[in-house]
Design goal:
The chain is α/β, with parallel strands linked by helices and 338 residues long. Helix content is 23%, strand content 24%. The chain has a single domain, classed as 4-Layer Sandwich (Metallo-beta-lactamase, Chain A), CATH 3.60.15. It has a nine-stranded mixed beta sheet, with helices on one face. The radius of gyration is 18 Å and the shape is globular.
Length: 338
């Protein structure tokens, strides 16, 4: 209770007032999983994954605290990108504490081991209580006020390039395919969000070969202002080809202290053309002093995590501001030059 109270106080102190009609995105710390809260200018909300179960409802309580700070009364869309413990595990306990209207996923779980069956059973039980939407590449998630286009799901990718895409990707000539990944990671729901001239790419945990299917030999993806670092910054994802295709201005990594944040992946991201900053939810032990960003850009620099988040506020002009929930440090990025 003390930890939650401190976290809620930190949220309140760090939150900046957002003008009406801005897009708000909270990257909530769930210790190397994903929980990304999107609040559309329309007021509708979508939560992307819900972190881990257990830990005395650590992740669920952090999510609920962020929902309250954001003024969200219900989760209009709960997107489960794939059926791994650090993404779907927190959904059932969250549903006990906060109303969820519509569940979105890629369809049935591809994995069949004991833990997978247990996760599926708990999640499937929720589908009986709410609306359910299965998405495939090319679909648009109906969150009002923004455009959210699914570019990959259940191991498949879009067949037609996005607007402004379709050019040959030079990075593909030096990037080789790896062994195919049969796991749920490769079946993650990946999407690109657009609000006016602002865009964000969230590809969950898709792995190397799915990335290449999107980026090579001609990129199917148009540029994104912000890149939520895929697979927590692991080097079985984050190929140079996908970064070349997106050439983001800002990357935000939801790595944990000892999960993700690998030196090889961070190096690829930092070498991405046009990248200005890499923000991190955690200091990465693996990346070390040289591989991590400056402390001002890290929400949780200590191993004894305090659960701080990173908040992004975007305007339709393409301008956006990123805020560190730990220290209140903010940086505003002007619209991308045409």
């Amino acid at each position: 209770m003390v930890r939650l109270a401190c976290f809620a106080l930190a949220l309140a102190l760090a939150a900046l007032p957002s003008p009406a009609k801005d897009l708000q995105i909270y990257f909530i710390d769930v210790e190397g999983g994903q929980a990304t809260l999107i609040v559309s200018p329309s007021g509708q909300s979508m939560l992307v994954d819900a972190g881990w179960p257990g830990f005395v409802d650590r992740d669920v309580d952090r999510i609920v605290a962020a929902l309250k700070v954001a003024g969200v009364k219900q989760i209009d869309y709960m997107l489960t990108t794939h059926y791994h413990l650090d993404h779907v595990g927190g959904v059932p306990p969250l549903a006990q504490k906060f109303p969820i209207v519509t569940y979105i996923d890629h369809g049935p779980n591809n994995e069949t081991d004991g833990q997978a069956k247990k996760l599926s059973a708990a999640y499937d039980a929720l589908l009986q209580k709410g609306k359910h939407l299965v998405v495939k590449p090319g679909d648009r998630i109906p969150l009002k006020g923004v455009e959210i286009d699914v570019v990959a799901a259940d191991g498949a990718v879009i067949t037609k390039p996005q607007a402004g895409a379709g050019a040959a990707n030079a990075a593909c000539t030096t990037v080789e395919r790896k062994q195919d990944d049969p796991s749920e990671n490769a079946r993650s729901v990946a999407f690109v969000l657009r609000y006016g001239k602002f865009s964000l790419a969230d590809f969950a945990d898709i792995t190397w070969n799915i990335e290449l299917s999107l980026a090579c030999p001609d990129s199917k993806l148009s540029a994104a202002d912000v890149y939520l670092v895929t697979h927590h910054g692991m080097d079985i994802s984050n190929s140079p080809a996908i970064l070349q295709a997106l050439h983001p201005r800002v990357a935000i990594s939801n790595n944990g202290v000892r999960k993700g944040g690998t030196p090889a992946a961070f190096k690829v991201i930092r070498n991405s053309p046009g990248l200005e900053d890499l923000w991190q939810l955690h200091y990465s032990t693996a990346a070390g002093a040289e591989g991590n960003s400056a402390e001002a850009l890290i929400a949780n620099p200590d191993a004894n995590c305090q659960g701080r988040w990173i908040k992004l506020t975007a305007r339709s002009s393409g301008e956006f501001t990123v805020l560190n929930g730990r220290n209140g440090f903010t940086k505003t990025y002007k619209p991308r030059a045409n």
